[in-house]
Amino acid sequence: MKTSKERVVPYITRDGSTVRELMHPSVHGNYQQSLAEARVKPGCITRLHKHRLTEELYHVISGAGLITLGTEVLQMKAGDTICISPGTVHCVENTEKQDLVFLCCCSPAYSHKDTKLL
Q1: Does the pLDDT value for residue 7 go beyond 90?
Q2: Domains of the chain, start order
Q3: Measured between alpha carbons, how far is 37 from 10 in angstroms, rounded to an integer?
Q4: For residue 72, with 0-12 CB atoms within 10 Å meaning exposed, 13-18 middle and 19 or more buried, which class applies?
Q5: Is residue 15 very low, low, confident or very high in pLDDT (cuts 50, 70, 90)?
Q6: What is the DSSP letter of 110?
Q7: What is the predicted pLDDT for the residue at 27?
Q8: Minimal CA–CA distance to 55: which of 81, 26, 22?
Q9: Which pLDDT belongs to residue 31?
């Protein structure tokens, strides 16, 4: 199966980032995971949240910022990959003047129901 980014309509997630679901079971018929492109505008920060079941991998495509993982704050920039374990409180802050863009792979697939805002 194949999808095209240009055909995917972006939406705002519960944490405030703009997302394009590039591959998701509810739309594309795959089973175990989802892949999305997330975008955080300059000077913006996503809402602090966690996922009870979902492990996430973020791979930064462009831009830079900070990611909070529990009590740890790390810099993130193009080329970096971050693993977020289930239950880890996290958020992303764009500290630059250009969009912070990253791929987000979720397993199991992303679900609003599994996202708890803090």
Answers
A1: no
A2: 7-117 (2.60.120.10)
A3: 9
A4: exposed
A5: confident
A6: P
A7: 82
A8: 81
A9: 86
